[in-house]
Each structure stands twice: as C-alpha cells, then as structure tokens.
C-alpha cells in the first residue's frame, strides 16, 4: 500500500507556503493527486500534468502520475460508472477518492439482492497503521455493514519475505493494525481477522494456486527473476489465496479494496480463479478451438455470410461453411491491406483454422472446455447438459444452452464434484493520499503521515506544519484563491476530517479557492479536528484491546 520508501524524498516537516518549488520536488509533483471540487463530487480530474509513465509495482514506489492512465493502460474501470448503482455510497465514493474498480457491479448486485458477497483486504505490518490505511479499514467496515462477509488479514509472510521484518516487529504492528480496524467499527464476530502465517487453510489453498502459477508469469507480472527469493514468490501465491479465501465455503462475489499498486495482484488472482475451474464456458462457432480474438473475426464472418440475401427460404438456406468464412476474411484482409490496416496474425490464424475445417458448417454454440475436471465431473457434465450437444475429447458443445445458463450449470457440476467454482474477484481502488510534506505519504517518513497511534498533540503539530496549496502572501491568496486541488490539508478534510459531511467539505473547498479562507486558520481548524479524531480513535483502540484479546488470533509468534 502507500507506504513505500522513496529515496531522496524531502521529509522536512516545516515548509512555508512560499517555498514551493525550491526543493527537488519534481518527483513529488508527479505523484500528487487531488480530489476534485467536492461540490461536483466527481473523480474525473485533478491530476498532474507532464507526468512520467505509470507503473504499478506492489513493492516498488508506485507513483500514479495520472489516474486516467489506469483506465486506458490497465483496463481499470471508472468508479463513476457504477456510482449510481451504489445505495447510500460511502463519502470516499462520493468524493472520488475511490476512483476505479474491476467488476464491482457483481458485488453490488449480490448485496442488493441479499445474496452472499464478501470484502477482503490485507495489511503488511511494516510500521504503524496511518490515515492512509484508514481508508481501507473504512471500506471494509462499510461493506460489512451492508451485509458482506468481511475479512481483514495481516500479511505477515509478505512483510517477512518482501520487507525483511523480524517476527517481533511483525507481531507488534499486527496488533496495532487489528486494534485500529476494530476501533473503526469492524466486527470480528461477524467477519474474520487472520494472519497469513497462522492460517492453514489459506496456505493449503496457496499451495494449490502455486500449481497453476509459473515463474515466467511472475517474471512478466512482477519483474521477478533468477535472484528473487522463493519466499517472496510464496508470498505472492499466499496473497492469491487471500483474495480467493472468502470463496472457500462457496463461490461468491468478493471485492478487494486496495490502492492501484495492488492491481497486478488482482489481475493475477482473476486469472487464477478461472484457471482453477474445472470447466471454462465460451461461445464457439465450429468444432475447433479459437481464441477470443479469432472468435471475434469468425463471428463477424458468420454474421456477414449468414445474413447475405440468398434466394430461397430460411429452411433450405445453405449453411455457411468454414472455408467460405476463410475466403471472406481473406478478402477483408486484402481490402484492409489497401488502407494499411494491420492485425494480421490473428486474422491469418483464424483463416488457417477455418480452412483446415473445410466444409464444416459454422454454427453458433456454447462450449464447455475441460480445464481441470476429473473424468467423473466431465461425464457428469455431459449428463447434465440438456438438449442437443456434441461431445469431444476436451470439450462439449451445446446448441441449446445460453452462456449464462451454461456457466451456472458448469459451476453446479464442479461444486458437486469437489471443485472450488471460483468467481473472478472484483476490486475497488482508492487514490493514494498525498504526504503532509508533499510527495508520497510514506510509513517510513513520520512527518509525511499521521499515524493512528500519534498522540493528539503530535497529530495537531503535524497538520500545522503541513505543506499547503496556499499562495505566497495572504493578499495573493485573497486575490487568486488557494489551490485546494494541490493541498494536502484540503485532502485531510476530504479524506477524513469532514467525514460524512459533504456540505462541510464543499465549504472548505469553495472558501479556499474563492480566497476567503487563509491557510493559517484553515490548518488550525484541521489540526484541531485531527487531534479530536485521534483522541477518539485512541479511546476506541483501548476498548478494542479486550475484543482483540478475546479472539483466537495468535500475536506472539514463536519463531526466531
Ligand atoms: N500486498 C498487500 C500490501 O502490500 C497486502 C495484502 C496481502 C493484501 N494479501 C492481500 C491486500 C489480499 C489485499 C488483498 O499491502
Ligand atoms: Fe489548503 Fe486550506 Fe490553504 Fe486552501 S486554505 S490551500 S485548503 S490550507
């Protein structure tokens, strides 16, 4: 999460409003992000310009130069698209702090229908939990309150292998994370808290997932190589197991609230969920296998040829044959070559496959692929498919079942025969908080963040020393207004201090940008609210001690 170490970060807590740009802040600017005007309550702007390329590295210093890249480059969807479907959205959703998702609709639909759903996130106990982690704690609590089975886990294996922490430190921090999570409203009786090292079921699942994961894949996703230690790789399959863990009892839509740096993990987990399945279900047009892109072309050929106005009635219409589709695609290729279009390899392979199938008629169908099914399960599926079907060595084609129905059927048979039947996990992504000193909020730079363990006075002081988006003089500020979108203090209001009060967040924003608010008073108000928050939170942490001690979770690791 947002606690990476960045060499060269300027950690000086004291920075007046006038020294912006004097220090080596180019890095910081790139990682700067803002919430847009809360009166619009949207997430579509507020990003730095001229930024470098976005990299998503779970263990590196992921800077997100421009959140919009994440949509185009990585296929994360905009949260705005699903926001209207969220009943009583959390303020982090309303204010665009939660900006992206994958497949979140399916979780919302389940919650809406009172069907099983889950939320899970994990925390590396590398330092104190801070206000950046609070976002995720809040997200878990929110989903729990809406009926999701919620899970909070301590990624201690990861902290040990990827960050080299020893077990005493890990135990101490683990305790602190769990106390804050409970203090913020997580109900450990309703949900589940665990640590990776202590969860046998999880590790068994990790082992099974390891069977489906190979080194070259980890190389391409995470840049692992010959020098990567095995425990680090093990921590990856462990995280994959974390993400699928809520589905061990039964498959259910599961949301993983995380920062975008964790997206590579989410993508791999979605892939593995499918790979673990007994059966895959796809559309198909002929007996041979085609990949999704080839299928797309074949579908186009089929559509074009079958709707050709041939003489004669539907009934005696000649079927479209594979070879004709091959010719059609080849003609298209020629036409496209004239205007320089590309994508030739897919087309060529599709043409080749169609030619090889010769006179076989093209006919739309639903295909069940045998991925990891036992022989028994495969036979049972054959039995279970009603209507016209054709059975091959590694797949079964059904001519009467729609995709959705086929998917349900495949899962049912899989579950009956001891498979997991995983659904692809969903995710939601929140923006990283800006550090109080500008740049990234980092666990390793105390002045950059407010720890949930900081005493109220320390919290107060840190806010008072924070960088702002203010102008050089009060006069200029009155004239031009402050730059709330560039201001870590405004972020504190939007992400935390204003809590559910949109009207308050909007007021701060408008007074700032309208020049009515000056930084001194604004920081004073924020500092006081922060001190109040910390005091309250720490009281609740004290109460949470008893709850935590009553849980079956071992916080005293007996290892060297
Ligand atoms: N890798 C995460 C981090 O760096 C921690 C984590 C472990 C996690 N397992 C998880 C996060 C499962 C989400 C879901 O903080
Ligand atoms: Fe930031 Fe407040 Fe100053 Fe505006 S007035 S720039 S929100 S500190």
UniProtKB/TrEMBL annotation:
Molecular function GO labels = ATP binding; tryptophan-tRNA ligase activity
Q: Which SUPFAM superfamilies does the record match to this protein?
A: Nucleotidylyl transferase
- Where composition is biased (Low complexity), the residues are 44-53
UniProt keywords (A-Z) are: Aminoacyl-tRNA synthetase, ATP-binding, Coiled coil, Cytoplasm, Ligase, Nucleotide-binding, Protein biosynthesis
Q: Does RNA-binding show up as a keyword for this record? A: no
Can you tell me which residues the record assigns to a coiled coil?
523-554
Q: Where is this motif: 'KMSKS' region?
A: 440-444
| UniProt-listed Enzyme Commission number(s) | 6.1.1.2
Pfam families on file: tRNA-synt_1b
Q: Does the keyword Repeat apply?
A: no
What family does this chain come from, according to its entry? Answer: Belongs to the class-I aminoacyl-tRNA synthetase family.
Q: What's the protein here called?
A: Tryptophan--tRNA ligase
What's the encoding gene here?
Answer: trpS
């Amino acid at each position: 999460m947002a606690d990476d170490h960045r060499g060269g970060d300027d950690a000086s807590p004291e920075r007046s409003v006038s020294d912006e740009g004097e220090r080596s802040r180019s890095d910081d600017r790139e990682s700067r992000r803002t919430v847009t005007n809360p009166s619009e309550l949207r997430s579509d702007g507020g990003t730095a310009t001229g930024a470098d390329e976005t990299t998503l590295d779970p263990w590196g210093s992921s800077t997100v130069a421009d959140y919009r890249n994440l949509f185009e480059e990585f296929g994360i969807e905009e949260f705005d698209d699903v926001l209207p479907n969220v009943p009583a959205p959390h303020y982090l959703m309303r204010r665009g702090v939660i900006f992206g998702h994958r497949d979140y609709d399916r979780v919302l639909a389940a919650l809406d229908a009172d069907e099983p759903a889950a939320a899970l996130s994990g925390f590396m106990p590398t330092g104190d939990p801070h206000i950046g982690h609070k976002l995720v704690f809040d997200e878990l609590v929110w989903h729990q309150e809406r009926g999701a089975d919620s899970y909070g886990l301590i990624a201690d294996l990861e902290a040990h292998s990827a960050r080299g922490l020893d077990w005493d430190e890990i135990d101490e921090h683990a305790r602190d994370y769990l106390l804050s999570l409970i203090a913020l409203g997580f109900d450990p009786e309703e949900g589940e808290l665990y640590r990776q090292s202590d969860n046998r079921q999880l590790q068994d699942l990790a082992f099974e997932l390891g069977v489906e994961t190979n080194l070259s894949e980890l190389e391409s996703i995470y840049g692992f190589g010959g020098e990567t230690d095995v425990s680090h790789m093990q921590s990856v399959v462990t995280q994959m197991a974390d993400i699928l863990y809520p589905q061990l009892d039964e498959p259910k839509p599961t949301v993983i609230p995380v920062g975008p740096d964790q997206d590579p993990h989410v993508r791999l987990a979605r892939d593995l969920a499918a790979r673990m399945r007994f059966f895959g279900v796809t559309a198909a047009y002929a007996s041979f296998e085609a990949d999704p892109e080839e299928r797309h072309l074949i579908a186009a050929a089929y559509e074009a040829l079958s709707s050709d106005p041939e003489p004669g009635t539907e009934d005696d219409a000649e079927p479209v044959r594979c070879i004709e589709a091959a010719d059609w695609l080849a003609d298209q290729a020629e036409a496209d070559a004239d205007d320089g279009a590309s994508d030739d390899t897919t087309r060529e392979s599709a043409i080749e496959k169609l030619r090889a199938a010769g006179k076989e008629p093209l006919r739309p169908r639903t295909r069940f692929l045998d991925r990891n099914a036992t022989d028994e399960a495969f036979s049972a599926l054959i039995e279970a498919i009603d209507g016209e079907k054709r059975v091959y060595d590694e797949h079964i084609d059904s001519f009467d079942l729609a995709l959705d129905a086929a998917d349900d059927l495949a899962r049912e048979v899989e579950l009956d025969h001891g498979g997991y039947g995983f659904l692809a996990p969903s995710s939601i992504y929140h923006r990283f908080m800006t550090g109080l000193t500008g740049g990234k909020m980092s666990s390793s730079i105390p002045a950059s963040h407010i720890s949930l363990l900081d005493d109220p006075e320390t919290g107060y002081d840190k806010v008072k020393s924070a960088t702002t988006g203010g102008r050089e003089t009060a006069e200029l500020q009155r004239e031009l207004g402050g730059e709330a979108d560039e201001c870590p203090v405004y972020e504190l209001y939007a992400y935390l201090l204003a809590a559910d009060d949109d009207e308050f967040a909007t007021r701060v924003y408008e007074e700032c940008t309208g020049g009515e608010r000056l930084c001194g008073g604004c920081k004073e108000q924020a500092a006081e609210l922060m001190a109040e928050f910390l005091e309250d939170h720490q009281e609740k942490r004290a109460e949470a001690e008893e709850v935590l001690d009553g849980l079956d979770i071992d916080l005293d690791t007996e290892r060297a």
